[in-house]
Every structure is written in C-alpha cells, then in structure tokens.
Amino acid sequence: MAVDQVFEALASRPRREILAYLSAQELTAGDIASRFDMTAPAISRHLSILEAAGLVSSERRGQYVFYRLNKDSLVNTLTGFAFEICPTAGPLKRESRKLARKGGA
User: Fold this and answer.
1) pLDDT tens per residue across span 69-86
2) Half-sphere exposure of 49 (CA within 13 A, CB side)
3) Residue 28 pairs with which residues in a beta bridge?
4) 3-state DSSP: the chain helix, strand, coil percent, rounded to 5?
5) Contacts of 6 (CB under 8 A, 6+ apart)
6) How many Cβ atoms are within 10 Å of 3's Cβ, its own excluded?
7) Which residues, in sequence order, are bridge partners of residue 89?
C-alpha cells in the first residue's frame, strides 16, 4: 500500500463519508448505497479505491459482500506521514531505535 494511494483515496469527499459510515460497523455495498445519493456502480468504484488503498477490506458471505474499515491501516499511514513531515520526528525515531536496541529505557 502506497501512501499516495491512501491520500488519493482520502481526497474524495464521498470516500471520506463512506469511511465515516463504516467506522462503527461492517456493511454491505447495498447498505452503503442506500445511505448515499449515488448509483450502485459509483459506490462500487469508491469501495474498490478504498480497498486498493488498504483502508477497507471486504468479505463475501453468500450473495453479499461486507465491507469494514481497516482502522490500523489508516492510523499507521497517517502516523507515518506525520513522522515524515515533522521536523523532530527523525531524531525521535533514531532515539527510539537506540532505546529498542538497548532493551528499553
């Protein structure tokens, strides 16, 4: 999963809204489509982009596909991005690696 893919997926308001809708429970594509004023193919495209970015995962159960939010993936991507742009992150990451090699604080 590339960071660029995640931010490209998050750049779309409908995709951010879909992520918010999935934040508390897993839902079928039909459940998601019923909440938004979009065609089923449009919802499917958005879900496919979110899945390719690693932000949601899907599981087929019978005739339905259930989607769920990958919370760890989103948090890790955003945290990694914040570390890259934060001016103090580099020294803190080096300090953390040094502590880990020593076996803790």
Assistant:
1) 887 877 777 766 666 666
2) 20
3) 66
4) 65, 15, 25
5) 53, 54, 55, 74, 77
6) 13
7) none
DSSP letters of 36-62? SSS-HHHHHHHHHHHHHTTSEEEEEET
| pTM confidence score | 0.73
Give the separation between CA 55 and CA 8, rounded to whole angstroms: 11
pLDDT confidence tier of residue 105, bands split at 50, 70 and 90? very low
CA 51, 23, 38, 10 torsion: positive or negative?
Answer: negative
Q: Strands, E, within 1-105: which ranges?
A: 27-28, 56-61, 64-69
Measured CA to CA in angstroms, residue 90 lies from 18, 83, 87 at distances of 34, 7, 7
The pair of three-digit structure tokens given for residue 49, joined into one six-digit string: 């982009």
Q: Give the integer Cα–Cα distance in Å for 43 and 32.
A: 8
How far apart, in Å, are the Cα atoms of 18 and each of 37, 40, 80, 83?
Answer: 12, 13, 23, 26
Helix (H, G, I), strand (E, B) or coil at 69: strand
Q: Which amino acid is at 1?
A: M
